[in-house]
Amino acid sequence: MIKNLQEHPDGPVTVSGWVETVRDQKRVQFIVLRDESGAAQLVNSAVRELDPEAPVENGEARLAVTEAISELSHGSFITVTGELIHNERVKLGGLEVKIEALSVITHANPETPIADDSGLDKRLDWRFLDLRRPEQQLIFRIQTTMLHAFRTVWIDKGFIEIQTPKLMASASESRAELFELEYFEGKAYLAQSPQFFKQMAQAAGFGGVFEVGPAFRADHSFTSRHATEFTSVDMEMSWIDSHLDVADVHEELLVTALTAVKEKHGEDIERLFGITVEVPSRPFPRIPLAEAKDIVKRRGYEVPRDDADMDPEGERQISAYVKEELGHDFVFLTDYDKSIRPFYHMRNPENPELTNSYDLIYNGVEISTGAQREHRVEVLIEQAKEKGMVPEELDFYLDFFRYGVPSHGGFGMGLARVLMLLLQQSSIREVTYLFRGPTRLQP
User: Fold this and answer.
1) pLDDT at 58
2) pTM summary value
3) Which CATH class is domain 2-106?
């Protein structure tokens, strides 16, 4: 691997990778070669015609290498054997490889379909080429590190990883924004979230569970933070006293993950994105939604009165306030009105109009919703009726609570949103391996 050349002594080496650039000068040729670990400079003292003083085989071989380099196109994949030389005058890593033999594994078409200034949609059309950029590869290394850190926290706490089905016989939470599909003689739906099955694990006595998996929303939004298929990071845990117990674990997960990202990738993020990773302090600020709206109003913006939620501009304003006053990038907004929460969110015992729930805002954008769940079946039935739902259609779910279930709660979090905000990207399309939206099903 190219990253290992720094520690390799001068001498023979073999490297493979994609041709990034070729500089074909009169007496010397340079290639910048890139693999998934980095880039290196290769050099060939060009032979433009056979040297009568040299052995025929050697002269012919050198001429063949020179001609092959002249014909290389950007993106061709080659293998080179040569002499590694550490040379501090070389700007690219302080080393170069003097080419002795070159083999073209695959030629790339000389006309590349995307360029540095291509728009996002064009780049997504040719995603496999766009992903070759070092910035893009770093995004998914960061994602890997983040998910590993999450799992480490959960596993250390004794949580169990589950994989819930994505084919549902009925709506997972509501009948809105569902993808319906034919299923043999009947119909099925793609799951919006693993919510019901996470809660089933609580009734099964699993205690704490987590899942990282796909979720589907038939949402016609074309915003920078919505997708029809996305990766959801979900957790559910038993033996809680309130939604704030869930928030405690939530912030532990994020602090652990951002610490790992900073330690492993901080320098690369600084170099490629110009961003210094900030590891947040604990505890994260927690502000009741009504108070947050008052703060936003004092800042000169009023959330529309008919909106019981916090709208996007309100999220940006409360984040700006928290950053200015508390120096924090995260804030939990708590105590949401029952009208905008699902039937299974537990009501606040002191004010039944509110729920034991929160939204987590990161750098001005909501990334997660968490809550304590209602575990009393008779209360669940009444709350479902309030929402206009038919309890009989929820029997498979309500059965979980008819045979004993502990108090519990959890959250669901959009992975791409976290990455987008961490790296200050303009859209989740930039940080999703293959994006799916209302008008995109390929590649």
Assistant:
1) 62
2) 0.92
3) mainly beta
Domain boundary assignment for the chain: 2-106, 124-431
pLDDT tens for 379-401 read 999 999 999 999 998 999 999 99
439, with CB counted inside 10 A (0-12, 13-18, 19+), is exposed
Angle at 23 between CA 109 and CA 40, to 5 degrees: 90
Q: Which residues are registered as beta bridge partners of 337?
A: 354
Strand, coil or helix: what is 372?
strand
Task: Evaluate whether 15 touches 79 at the Cβ level (below 8 Å).
Answer: yes
DSSP H stretches of helix in 20-133:
56-70, 120-125, 127-130
Phi-psi region of 60 (alpha: psi -120 to 50; beta: other; left: phi over 0): alpha
Examine the pLDDT at 29 and tell me if it is beyond 90.
Answer: yes
Q: How far apart are CA 324 and CA 326, in angstroms?
A: 6
Q: Which residues contact 251 (CB under 8 A, 6 or more apart)?
A: 280, 282, 283, 284, 330
- pLDDT tens profile 335-380: 999 999 999 999 999 999 999 999 999 999 999 999 999 999 999 9
69 is written with which tokens? 């380099």
Architecture of domain 124-431 in this structure? 2-Layer Sandwich (3.30)
Q: How far is 43 from 87, CA to CA, in rounded Å?
A: 12
Q: What is the pLDDT of residues 61-77, one digit of tens each?
A: 788 899 999 999 999 99
